[in-house]
UniProtKB/TrEMBL annotation:
GO process terms (BP): chromatin organization; DNA repair
Taxonomic path: Eukaryota, Fungi, Dikarya, Basidiomycota, Agaricomycotina
Protein name in UniProt: RuvB-like helicase
Keyword terms of this UniProt record: Activator, ATP-binding, Chromatin regulator, DNA damage, DNA repair, Helicase, Hydrolase, Nucleotide-binding, Nucleus, Transcription, Transcription regulation
EC top class, as a word: hydrolase
EC number: 3.6.4.12
A Gene Ontology molecular function term of the record: ATP binding
Protein species of origin: Calocera viscosa (strain TUFC12733)
Family indicated by similarity: Belongs to the RuvB family.
Region: Disordered, residue numbers: 1-25
Domain of life: Eukaryota
Length: 469
């Protein structure tokens, strides 16, 4: 049996998500029940379509925007979601992203994030713009693909330290419909296999010239009717183990900017795309971005790559200042701009960075004129109750009808977000009382333990008055 040796991949290390990124992911989790705008074929809002309750008019308006985006008739324009806090503006932006599809990048930026000590405001905006522009690269490569039938690492004495063992090489077996093949792999590829948590029975492919390993899924020969995890089962690959395969990589322009700012060498797609621009770089500059754009445009013209404009959601847009707004106006003109959705809960207010210019939502009129504005309405008590119901199901909490009513009252008196935030603590208190179901007493106790903004502000005011008298 012919055995082939492969070299390890030397592509850029993929950094784990930074705290900011993790905070961003947490933000997304609170909308995990939102699966889309919940519209019928004719664009009418369904009563609880896709986890969305109420806001029928705003959802239908956003449905029209999704159609405009799909028809590529939305470039250079923005969507502004204006409404009181907790009326589903972020949820609508998430729903639009779902409607556009998982391959469309979606980026959340809270406007106040642009004010950071180290990085220029417009640089933060530029980076978020680039992260919201996807690029899909198709390339045909020589790969070894199949169901993993054998994974045998061979140990050898550690040549460096004289004690302990190291992996000298690993032998794997790959099976396809047509046959099997044994491969002798470099330790670096074995580490990649371990990192991807690949086990015997998984269907994988290994790129021949980089040794990059990709887990496609679990072979459906192992599918059992009792499996609980959300495993993706895939059929046994057809054809030979060694074949030419079209690989699709979904990146965003910031990935390319960063890879070019710190070229790391190597053959995998990130490294290749990371060497588009000659010469050593240290940071991402507008000049670098312009060069990356030029090369990307060349790839698009050759049909190797496709630009996927994503969604950049800028929450609390009234926090941006005049300098940021002028950057946004220019950036929206760029042919490679993402679709920008703004959200604000402010009315007429001062445009930050100016002394005396007030305007609707704190945005300059020239930018406002380019936006479609969608209003979100406060929820009725019944709608708040239904949102709480949907959220409780998603969070796996069981709530009695009376407790749900009590929470809905809290939401009605204070805010939807406050009521939603009482759900998990109430579940904890129910657990402490040895119950799995949340009852009204748990809601009352959490109401006393955790204040809403109005009560806490009033409490401090009373305290302030008491101490000054
Ligand atoms: N109509 C709705 N249906 C289902 N869930 C909703 C709805 N509206 C809001 N939510 C949920 O309520 C919570 C608060 O909503 P969201 O964050 O969208 O409000 P917002 O208008 O963006 O608030 P803010 O102005 O403070 O950013 C989120 O968990 C969101 O998923």
């Amino acid at each position: 049996m012919k055995v082939t040796t492969l070299q390890p991949s030397t592509g850029p290390a993929h950094h784990s998500s930074a705290p900011a990124e993790q905070a961003r992911q947490l933000r997304v989790a609170s909308h995990s029940h939102i699966k889309g705008l919940g519209l019928s074929e004719t664009g009418e809002a369904l009563s609880t379509g896709s986890g969305f309750i109420g806001q029928a008019q705003a959802r239908e308006a956003c449905g029209v925007v999704v159609d405009l985006i799909r028809l590529r008739k939305f470039s250079g324009r923005g969507l502004l979601l204006a409404g009181p806090p907790g009326t589903g503006k972020t949820a609508l932006a998430m729903a639009i992203s779902h409607e556009l599809g998982t391959k469309v990048p979606f980026r959340i930026l809270v406007a106040s994030e642009v004010y950071s000590a180290e990085v220029k405001k417009t640089e933060v905006l530029a980076e978020n713009f680039r992260r919201a522009i996807g690029i899909r690269v198709k390339e045909t490569k020589e790969v070894y693909e199949g169901e993993l039938t054998e994974l045998t690492p061979t140990e050898a004495p550690n040549p460096l330290s004289g004690y302990g063992k190291t992996i000298s090489h690993v032998v794997i077996g790959l099976k396809t419909v047509k046959g099997t093949k044994q491969l002798r792999l470099d330790p670096g590829v074995y580490e990649a296999i371990m990192k991807e948590r690949i086990v015997v029975g998984d269907v994988v492919y290994i790129e021949q010239n980089t040794g990059a390993v990709k887990r496609v899924g679990r072979s459906d020969a192992y599918a059992t009717e009792f499996d609980l995890e959300s495993e993706t089962y895939v059929p046994l690959p057809k054809g030979d183990v060694h074949k030419r395969k079209e690989l699709v990589q979904d990146l965003n322009l910031h990935d390319l900017d960063a890879a070019n700012a710190r070229p790391q060498g190597g053959q995998d797609i990130m490294s290749v795309m990371g060497q588009l621009v000659k010469g050593r770089r240290t940071e991402v500059t507008d000049k670098l971005r312009a060069e990356v754009n030029k090369v990307v445009k060349g790839y698009v013209d050759q049909g190797v790559a496709e630009i996927v404009p994503g969604v950049l959601f800028i929450d609390e847009v009234h926090m941006l200042d005049i300098e940021c707004f002028s950057y946004l106006s220019r950036a929206l003109e760029s042919p490679m701009a993402p679709h920008v959705i703004f959200a604000t809960n402010r009315g007429v207010t001062l445009v930050r960075g100016t002394d005396d210019i007030t305007s609707a939502h704190g945005m300059p009129s020239d930018l406002l004129d380019r936006c479609l504005i969608v209003k979100t309405e406060p929820y009725s008590r019944n709608e708040i109750k239904r949102v709480l119901e949907v959220r409780a199901v998603v969070e796996g909490l069981s709530v009695s009808e009376e407790a749900l009513d009590k929470l809905a009252d809290e939401g009605n008196n204070s805010s939807l977000r406050y009521a939603l935030q009482l759900l998990s603590p109430a579940a904890i208190l129910a657990g402490v009382a040895g119950r799995t179901e949340i009852l009204p007493e748990d809601v009352s106790e959490t109401h006393d333990l955790f204040l809403d903004a109005k009560r806490s502000a009033r409490g401090l005011e009373d305290w302030g008055n008491a101490t000054t008298n």
